[in-house]
Amino acid sequence: MSRPRFLIGTSHKTYLTQQRAVAWATDVAQICRDHETVRTGQVRTFVLPTHLAVPAALAAVGDAPLAVGAQDVSAHEAGPHTGEVTAAELAEVGCALVAVGHAERRRDHGETDEVVAAKVAAALRHGLVPLICIGERDEGPAEQAVESCRAQTVAALRQAREEGLSGEVVLAYEPVWAIGAANPASAAHIRVVCRALRDLLRTPGEEGAAGVVETGRVVYGGSAGPGLLTEVAPDVDGLFLGRKAHDPRAVRDVLDEAAQIIAAEGGPGE
């Protein structure tokens, strides 16, 4: 299968109960089965339910082309770590990817660059795709955001590089000031930052990502919803959708939007 043009997904955070998460997964799985761009691999989709809802969501999705992942992962391997969920266990139950270093984890749980790097390494060690959340705290010029995001990315990959790990990695650019806001960052801002992050994924050495990242993508999150992909598509590989995507109809709208972009670029679409 050719490299997907877009990666589209969302996190339920703790907004949805397990029952609602299963209903959402059932509905969106059917949308993905029916949508040509997803069936043909032009678009890959994913959802991150709560840890408790992961097995039920996997059962609801079945063989549909909708990957299920987790919202967080332990920095530790199996052992005396009460309350943790290891990468090995997530992989064993069928998770495909895991979010790492979200701004809310840093804010609410004090996660440092070192903790994030350990979680990225744990994910890669067990064949999970780390979706590394990066973003500047305060609104400002795109050039400043680029420098902040470069530093966060290099730090997040440091332990994996030291251990000689590599694999697929997704960078989720989420300006902290845009998370939960009424509107996302401007399209111009998003495109500048995501272009720079794409370049970083191809940059060798300790100040780049090449070597650790075999396959890399950059998606935008931070109040992302329908209508945004068209504005930023030339410079992003997809969207990490916000709360709007908790309505399955919004997911369908974004997939339709992706199909239109792919068709305009000369690829197959609906």
TrEMBL record:
Keywords: Cytoplasm, Gluconeogenesis, Glycolysis, Isomerase. It holds the Pfam family TIM. InterPro entries: Aldolase_TIM, TIM_sf, Triosephosphate_isomerase. It is found in: Cytoplasm. Its EC number is 5.3.1.1. Pathway: Carbohydrate biosynthesis; gluconeogenesis; Carbohydrate degradation; glycolysis; D-glyceraldehyde 3-phosphate from glycerone phosphate: step 1/1. One of its GO terms (cellular component) is cytosol. It catalyses: D-glyceraldehyde 3-phosphate = dihydroxyacetone phosphate. It comes from the Bacteria. GO terms for molecular function: triose-phosphate isomerase activity. GO terms for biological process: gluconeogenesis; glyceraldehyde-3-phosphate biosynthetic process; glycerol catabolic process; glycolytic process. Transmembrane segments: none annotated. Homodimer. Belongs to the triosephosphate isomerase family. This is Triosephosphate isomerase. It comes from Ornithinicoccus hortensis.
